[in-house]
Amino acid sequence: MSDDIIYNDALVTITAKTILFKHCSLTGNDRPVDFSCIEKVVPKVPNLWNGKWRNMGSGDFKTWLPYDAERSKRDTIFVAHIRGKWWRIGFTVEDSRAVKAILQSKGLIG
Prior knowledge:
This protein has 110 residues and is mainly β. The strands form two sheets. A four-stranded antiparallel β-sheet has the order 1-2-3-4, with helices on one face. The chain has one helix at 96-105, and strands at residues 5-8, 12-15, 18-21, 31-34, 38-44, 63-64, 77-82, 88-91. The longest helix has 10 residues, at 96-105. The chain has one domain (5-105): PH-domain like. The termini are far apart. Helices cover 9% and strands 32% of the residues. 24% of the residues are buried.
């Protein structure tokens, strides 16, 4: 990860070219994804069906949610559709307005 961090919290780190999903695997490893690999990101209002009460894992075997013990208190769940993959990453952040603005500036909000 380069020094050009434009957003960072306990859940993600965003640079000009990548987003690092922290605690993304069952073993707690982080997962970096280049923005060029993301087709679109869909912001959703959290509810029972899209993961509001899920700390980590998947409810539909398609969208993986990295660990976030505070997910039920967040106002947005972002769903990143990865180009050429059948799976998605559903993630939350501490400042959803700032991250939404960054993703919009990259043309990724769909």
